[in-house]
Specification:
Radius of gyration: 51 Å
Helix content: 55-70%
Number of domains: 3
Shape: rod-shaped
Number of strands: 5
Strand order of the largest sheet: 2-1-5-4-3
Order of helices and strands: HHHEEEEEHHHH
Oligomer: single chain
Distance between the termini: 74 Å
Number of helices: 7
Structural class: alpha+beta
Length: 332
């Protein structure tokens, strides 16, 4: 069940999104690197073929094929594993030298598959053909090393993608679970508060991140809420204390009235006192109701502007004589 909740959690989904973007960026960058490497290897191979072609072609003298034939044969013998192929054919198509026969190849670069028995049928070569004194010279280099290197790089990149994907998902899951635990702590605290345990607070890690900031603000709000509740409890206790005295007096007055009534005496005075006590209790409740309405903002529409100067003058006028009798002066 916790794992299922983790998969549905927002942190885990964000981690998966980040992992997907990270892997996508890795694949795109890897593809670009692979393509650039492949082009660079192809350019280097073409350059090597051109250089070899230039060296072999430089041995041709005017109307003298012997040196050119000898050079082609010597290069062919050196290439025992057929990494490099050489072909020299005359203008009539006769094979003059080399370790393979090039037929119907266009001038310049091309990709060929050899028919030489010593070479497997699927071997591919990068060939360059040109005319020298009416004769056709073709030099081909095997693509096996280049293709093998590309295959190695591609496989390494594939394994790297799998490893990076696994690490990204596992790392995202670990980070998401850590964040989820903190969110679960916040949720548990809110549940405790909803059940009346106002002393519950969200645990802080102390690293000062955004979750800690929000948790600190929630804890501060809970502190204020707890203080308000404590204040309400104190106010309720004060109200009960303030109402206890007049209620006790009212009970005594009513008891006296009942006793007189049983004796046939008049209870007019007791009823008047009971009414006065009832009015006092009613005034107390009205005052509490007004305070609650004012705090809730329900009575603000009945507010009006007040000249404080007249209020101060009235206070000074009332208490100036009292202050003077006490040997003091009161001024505003």
């Amino acid at each position: 069940m916790p794992n299922f909740r983790l998969f549905r959690s927002t942190p885990f989904r964000l981690a998966l999104t980040f992992a997907f973007l990270f892997v996508l960026a890795f694949i795109v960058s890897g593809g670009i690197v692979y393509r650039l490497m492949s082009l660079d290897l192809a350019d280097r191979l073409d350059e090597s073929i051109r250089e070899t072609y230039s060296v072999v072609a430089a041995t041709y003298g005017a109307n003298d094929l012997d040196d050119l034939i000898a050079t082609v044969d010597s290069h062919s013998k050196i290439s025992t594993k057929k990494e490099q192929l050489y072909s020299l054919t005359g203008s009539n198509g006769k094979h003059l030298a080399g370790n393979f026969i090039a037929t119907a190849l266009p001038e310049g670069f091309s990709i060929v598959s050899t028919q030489t028995p010593e070479v497997t049928s699927d071997a591919r070569y990068r060939a360059y053909s040109g005319s020298i004194g009416g004769n056709n010279l073709t030099i081909a280099f095997s693509l096996s090393e280049t293709e093998e290197l590309e295959t190695i790089v591609l496989m390494s990149f594939g394994w790297g993608t799998l490893i990076v994907t696994g690490l990204a998902v596992i790392g995202g899951a670990l980070l998401a679970s850590r964040v989820q635990r903190r969110l679960d702590g916040i949720a548990a605290t809110m549940v405790d508060v909803s059940h009346g345990r106002l002393s519950a607070r969200i645990p802080l890690t102390g690293n000062g991140d955004d979750i800690d900031v929000v948790s600190s603000q929630v804890n501060a709000a809970l502190d204020r809420l707890s203080a308000l509740v404590d204040g309400m409890k104190q106010v309720s206790a004060n109200i009960a204390h303030d109402l206890k005295t007049p209620l006790n007096r009212l009970q005594m007055i009513l008891g006296t009235a009942i006793a007189k009534a049983e004796l046939g005496q008049t209870v007019t005075d007791e009823l008047a006192e009971a009414r006065a006590e009832g009015l006092e209790i009613n005034e107390t409740f009205d005052a509490l109701l007004r305070i609650a309405q004012i705090e809730a903002g329900a009575r603000k529409a009945r507010f009006s502007d007040l000249d404080l100067n007249s209020v101060v003058d009235a206070i000074v006028e009332v208490y100036a004589d009292v202050a003077e009798d006490d040997g003091k002066s009161l001024s505003a």
